[in-house]
Amino acid sequence: MTNKPLSVLISGAGVAGPALACWLARSGATVTVVEKAPVLRTGGQAVDFKGGTHLELLRRMGILEEVRRRRTGGADQTVIDSDGRRIAVMPGWFTGGDLEVLRGDLAEILYERTRDTCRYSFGDSITSLTETASGVHVTFESGAPRTFDVVVGADGIHSNVRRLAFGPEPDHVTHRGHYYALVDMEPVVDEPVMYNEPGRLVAVGGPKAPAFFCFASPELTYDRYSAAEQKQVLADAFRGMGWRTPEILAKLDRAKDVHLDSIARVALERFSKGRIVLLGDAAAANTLGGVGTGLALVAAYVLAGELSRADHATAFERYEATIRPFVKAAGGNNAGPFLAPRTRGGIWLRNQLLKRRLLLSSMAKTGEKLAGGHFELPDHAW
């Protein structure tokens, strides 16, 4: 970056992309963020930060106090039977880490911190990537073609950049036997509760929390951009379920927002190809594994730091060498069987585990390490 500012295109305005944009802009890079959605996407599930490294990253970004102000509280969730009687408790400290916030709130905070130093282009998407000797020539659905020094795919598990540069999604994304859904709908109960039947989970209630569904299923075909189709998948999957599930399903049609997706894992031999690199879920998603958001923030800091002090090839090698061990260690985690066990025996065993504080504490500490919560952050002159 001694001759001219590094020009970087980031695909994705969720969490990983704006986090990277924040650090790159501070290092002097010229940053453009392109996002397929027409506006910043709000709502979504709660995400959490675990360990001193995550909190220090938020502090260095200047957003720690704002994230704390918007925290969800990480409330305990009561596991109930079909009559509404308490069976066990999913502790808030186990699911919420040290600090929990809605994904949409975090995305908004990051956007607010970067919109004046980076260029955002909403309602647009990359259509082709052609690498040349001096950069990556990029065409868009609506914007004019441009050439960038580096392109970063931070566009989630269904990454467009990964598809264009690394090949079709089925080559890299593996369905892990369950689906999950978040639905912004009218509340049914005031306090957070979760109810299971074999292969199915409904969790509702709690401050600011959308309804959460999880169910076992082979891979499904549906339009990910059609709310009506997603609602129909949920209605079919949870038909006949006990407790107050019929009442909850009756509210689906009036739901403001729905997000249904597979619990899946992304596996790649490399995170980069030439001048194109992947970040966050696009590189190494392990859906609902509890480590994605925190590790994405660590990875963004590492990638920006390496790009600020070396050419792209060297920077990508160092970035991968640092982050790959975390991704490999977290790869075996699968939240589906824990949230929605396929048998009544499995549900009983899960509920017994929830009563073992020492085991839960050990699991939480492992998740903290996998998410980079104890990673030693290098210092950068930003």
UniProtKB/TrEMBL annotation:
Residues 7-321 form the FAD-binding domain. One of its GO terms (molecular function) is monooxygenase activity. Keywords: Monooxygenase, Oxidoreductase, Signal. It comes from Nonomuraea indica. InterPro entries: FAD-bd, FAD/NAD-bd_sf, FAD_aromatic-hydroxylase. It comes from the Bacteria. This is FAD-dependent monooxygenase. Residues 1-21 form the signal peptide.
